[in-house]
Amino acid sequence: MHSQSITGELTIYTAASEKQHLQEFLETGDDLEVNLSQVAEMDSAGLQVLILMKQEALRRNKKLRYTMHSKAVLEVLEMCNMTATFGDQVILT
């Protein structure tokens, strides 16, 4: 399994570059994990990137999991009623 972390902001200001990094990450294997524990801030643009990457992984027959959701990520997922949408285990601390 290949892993990658997103750190700092996942917002409209960083969405394009994070999308590029994640698209490159999709090329590294078929079983992938993105650690979200260091995401300090996320908005709807960041959520769109996460949705897009899940869809792209599915299209390419790859397994992509989001793990260790930070408080900022969980707040956006809950606000948009999408906590269970990705099918990833969410552990509340």
UniProtKB/TrEMBL annotation:
Domain named STAS: residues: 1-93
Protein name in the entry: STAS domain-containing protein
InterPro entries associated with the record: MlaB-like_STAS, MlaB_ABC_Transporter, STAS_dom, STAS_dom_sf
Source species, domain of life: Bacteria
Upper lineage: Bacteria, Pseudomonadati, Pseudomonadota, Betaproteobacteria, Burkholderiales
PROSITE patterns named in the record: STAS
A Pfam family hit: STAS_2
Naturally occurring in which organism (per UniProt): Undibacterium seohonense
